[in-house]
């Protein structure tokens, strides 16, 4: 059987940003509004899914906040199958598809099957959280290096954390809620000061956002005492301790 005459669809790996629909790129919004087949994970805000047109086939592969999770291989196979059947597929992911989004694996499997892929970048949680919590990731007086690290990964303790955090550096940890205490201990064992400021941002760029602050030695307690839940981001570094700009923002807004 030959399908040489059948049109192969394109898989669009689209970043949905950290939450609010108005943090979508214009290109992402256009693709969602014209979607015929939309495959999304659990981090994508319902307000964004609501932008899809009537008749769009929506497939949830709920990677977060759900008991039902499709295996990555099955997701890849689904994208390939839909595209080979001639459908353009909007694969909508929280944040940016190429920042801890496994977009690379999906693209590789699509290319292996001869399926074209386009990537539409999104605002990653680090940028969304920094803006919403008023924590600049770099600052001429406090940080000129930023690292993004996955806290929940194979061999957390084997990972070489030395140099990722410290004076003049900002460390942003994704997926680190469950391992926060272990990460803090590892960083202190590697020589980081126990009083290094930390901030934890839960549900950044969403109405229910919470920001809690503390010091590295108390990171585990900050997470536990506030019952921080995923999705949350941990920021470690002097930038997290540069005064509370969220307060200053409110004061300025009230005075304006
Ligand atoms: N591709 C996504 C990251 C997926 S990994 C991106 O670029 O943002 C999932 C992790 O991202 C979560 O465990 C959490 O650490 C972080 N995250 C995603 N959305 C978030 C949000 N609105 N607020 C805080 N953290 C978020």
TrEMBL record:
Keyword vocabulary terms for this entry: Cobalamin biosynthesis, Methyltransferase, Porphyrin biosynthesis, S-adenosyl-L-methionine, Transferase
Record SUPFAM superfamilies: Tetrapyrrole methylase (SSF53790)
An annotated Gene Ontology molecular function: uroporphyrin-III C-methyltransferase activity
Pathway involvement of the protein, from the record: Cofactor biosynthesis; adenosylcobalamin biosynthesis; precorrin-2 from uroporphyrinogen III: step 1/1; Porphyrin-containing compound metabolism; siroheme biosynthesis; precorrin-2 from uroporphyrinogen III: step 1/1
Keyword S-adenosyl-L-methionine attributed: yes
Domain Tetrapyrrole methylase: 10-217
GO terms of biological process kind: cobalamin biosynthetic process; methylation; siroheme biosynthetic process
EC code: 2.1.1.107
Superkingdom of this protein's organism: Bacteria
NCBIfam families, sorted: cobA_cysG_Cterm (TIGR01469), PRK06136.1 (NF004790)
Sequence similarity: Belongs to the precorrin methyltransferase family.
Protein name: uroporphyrinogen-III C-methyltransferase
Origin organism lineage: Bacteria, Pseudomonadati, Pseudomonadota, Alphaproteobacteria, Sphingomonadales
